[in-house]
Amino acid sequence: MYYPLGLPRRLRVPGGASHGQVKAIVCNRDRVLFAVLTEKSIWIWFSRPCVPVVVHQRSEESISTIGTNQMLEWRHDSSMIVVGTNKNRLIFYSIVVDESRREVYEQRDPPNPTLKRESAELYSCESIPPLMFSTAFEREVSGGVTGLVCLRDELMVATGSGHIQRLCWDGSINYSYCVDLRRVPFCDDQLVMKALPLDAPGVHVVDLEYSPLVGGFAVVLSDGRAAFLTASTLKFDPNAVQGIWARELEDATCAAINHKYRLLAYGRANSQGVVYLVDEATGGLEVSHRMILSDRDYGGSPGPVGFMKWTPDGTVLGMSWVGGGLSLWSVFGSLLTVSLRWDYSQDPLSHAITITNMEWGAEGYELWCVQEHEGGKEACWGKSTFMDNEDKKEEKEEEEVTTGTSVLQFSFIKSALTVNPCMSRLVRVLLQGSDCLYLNTTEGLMGTSSSIPHDALSLYFDDDEEGAFEDRANTQFNVAANKQWIVVPIPYKYTSSNWPVRYTCVDEAGQLVGVAGRNGVTHYSLRLRRWHLFGNESQERDFVVTGGLLWWRSSWLVLGAYNIPANTDELRLYPRDHKLDNSFLTTVPQPAQVLLLNIYGDQLIVLTADCHITVYNLQLSQSDSGGSPGSVVVSRVQEVDISGLTVHPACVVSVLLTSLRTESWQANSGQHSLLPAQSVIINISGKVLMIQRDQQQPLGSPNNGKLFHSAQMTPIVLASGCEALWCSSCAVSHKPHLSHALWLHCGAHGTRAWLPLFPNSSDKSHTFMARRIMLPFTPSIYPLAVMFEEGILLGAETDTSLLACDAASHHQPLMVVERTSQVYLHHLLRQLLRRNLGYHAWEVANTCRELPYFPHALELLLHQVLEEEASSKDPLPDCLLPRVVEFIREFPVYLQTVVQCARKTELALWHYLFSAAGSPKQLFIRALEVAQLDTAASYLIILQNLESASVSRSLATRLLDATLEAGKWDLSKDLIRFLRSIDPTDLDSPKPSIPSCGSTKVGFTHATPPVSPACVDEDLSMILPNTQMLLRRIPSVLVILPQVLLSLV
Hints:
Blueprint: E1 2-11, E2 22-27, E3 33-38, E4 41-46, E5 51-57, H1 60-66, E6 69-74, E7 80-85, E8 89-97, E9 131-140, E10 145-151, E11 154-159, E12 163-168, E13 179-180, E14 186-187, E15 205-211, E16 216-221, E17 226-231, E18 241-245, E19 252-258, E20 263-268, E21 273-278, E22 285-291, E23 305-310, E24 316-321, E25 326-330, E26 335-338, E27 355-360, E28 366-372, H2 392-399, E29 405-415, E30 430-432, E31 436-440, H3 478-481, E32 485-489, H4 492-498, E33 503-506, E34 512-516, E35 522-525, E36 530-532, H5 537-541, E37 543-552, E38 556-563, E39 568-575, E40 586-590, E41 594-600, E42 603-608, E43 612-622, E44 629-641, E45 652-658, E46 679-684, E47 687-692, E48 716-719, E49 724-727, H6 736-739, E50 742-745, E51 751-756, E52 772-777, E53 783-787, E54 792-801, H7 804-807, E55 814-823, H8 825-834, H9 838-847, H10 854-870, H11 881-888, H12 894-903, H13 910-917, H14 920-929, H15 933-946, H16 949-966, H17 969-980, H18 1013-1023, H19 1027-1033, H20 1037-1048
């Protein structure tokens, strides 16, 4: 979802004795301003451009009397800031805009004409407001300040005396709503009749987070326990407050709350993280998943978890450790990246980033981190964002001072699915950054070869005079194998006044891109390489995109917007072939703010802030002059109220129309139109619900396009803990099992495929089987797109490289984003065979025979089952390998699959493999009979290690005669070299074949390595006292025993 990019930059915040160490970084509500808090000063910075606006440095008298700064919190309207000190004080500061000045930084060109700026990118269009920062008042807090959180128009202050005080921003305390932890009843869930208050003395809150959607506070206590404070009233009456313990958690260090998914994350002292969800039935905290570094990610322990922070969209959690290291986790526990796994020249912890505090910037494109140094001079990482206007002498003296902390900025790009989930219907990987887009190439998709020109890359590059892309159209799976990105820079003319970029989209053909920032919208044609911007900038500033962005029929850009002058919410449709202007605009008024959009064919589904889902039908009206589209007729089909399914409309992650149903059904082979919509699938805080179309009327009867006729509908729960879902919208498919499946990614619990099971027409008996089945598996990549027809998952990952110039200065490595892909067919076949659904597995595999990687998928299936079962230390009650072998035997590539799997497997596992697949000698003979000479040659490598040299020579000679008759001269040359390599002295040393026809040897696959005879004697003499006497009576045993062992090798 989120991927770091480039090198981190260091923010120039003066430290030393005059300012002290950096303690925290906190953004305001809209993340335009962020405050950098040091021990003795407060810096207010502007996000873009990243420049300081105002700085307030406290006097030495104030510091000695009130104490140094420790924590900071913004007011919701950014008019005030409160700072907590280490001497039980709260300092309130007021922030107002100076109306007498226009802006802080005035851009003036020098009088020298040669130094004047000619490019528009050298000018900043953002108006940086001049702020006046002043101390308002102070207030003493008994017990000390341990936590601050803003609750609506009030301030919740956690104290060291075990209280949570409720203050107004004028400094007054609302005593009636202050919470005393000693009077709060704590229990495991809300159904327990008996709840006990805290009995341990001195226990207080050390970390405090609030979420209105979860309905309470996530608190970490000083004794390591964690709890969730909730109340039955919105005012959070202390008499109604109840504490819910986080079970099996005694070493909590920090907390973070996810609003959209309603999750509570806690860091632990054992370097792990645990995420809880509120059980709707009992009200208790249930473990959703755990965030644990595997040995592959990092073998040691980075120490306790120091800080956790969710991204603004709630899809990724940033977590740091006290010992050093930064990691990113998806909302349900998939590890996206960890700095301990980056390319370091030495131990990662030796140069790890020790982060004590972090804050995400606007839309998550930047991560501001407070880095703690062990001491000494700071490392100069990258170019400083801001440099003081001091002379060189003063700057050199300042650098020699050891500050101990610095501020780093990491840049990120993220998937468009994080904010625009309607992109899941496309087979595209679209990543959006603060000023550019990353798009995977479009050539190579199956079923689109007729629509792609011969030189497919000519859409994005100059004319191919040399014919470099001549063979690209013949490569069906280049879209999955190609590692290249199409990087589309967003024009500075748009981002300079409309940063940050909020929504991006791409059409089905991958040739049109849409971008929506703070105001307005723009779109780009990859074929024409031209951006379309508003000619009238006032029209661009008059609306804000609030509910998604998508292309309809690659001709109309559809978006949900808020009209600022009219103060209304509406749907807007802009034509592609006309300039961006309101004269060509089609609008549809909406009753509330548009939150989500999605489309299925010509049906548009819209979610608004009043918890209503509305389905519209889109239809083109042709102009009178010609065939070009004139306008769009938008007709309302149906409206559905989902307020009973969610606590808040912001908890709805995605909504989509689909042709899927709980029962499987196939379309007619002659049908070429899109299948009719059958259900609505909604993802609410990770819980996937399906509302099916009722069957009161036949599908073909006129029903005015309505999907639902019942006044009350009961949704079906398909899955929980879902981060993203994908569903195909193809009209006709030759692989109905893959294209009619629903794909879900559930974080640490892996990926799930809701696969249809079509009944066997020849089987007339009652099987009592479900029409669909949920198949889980764990991919090795994080999926961002699903190629349904090709059976491939597409994704991205972060790769790092340590530059030579940075190795000496201990810089962090350069981070780049690479495309990844993975085949998933073998996972589905394995899960079906495990459930004894061999016929359905054969049906799925039979439709995929034409895929170029199909033999490789069968090899992966055999190899994974073999590795798992042959190396298992526990007894296997039901072995899967015989079923897998019998399944692969149904396909012509059986012999090839077995030998390729054996050559890529350890020699110790061959016995288990060929005990199920058959003798390799018999498989070799079978390959000769069916004229698979290359496959038979591969079996010679196996037979050389299992059979005697004479047998290998005989079989190789037999194969050589067959290759000479077939005229395969290259293979014949290889066989002659193989025969010459056989040592004649080895012809008389037979090797036992597998399975052996002589004496039977009983043993395990992985036996203990044999020991020397002397060691055998010593071991037996220690266990059996009579052994040494027996060896003395028969001394010849000591001579015979090594010969016997040698003959058995």
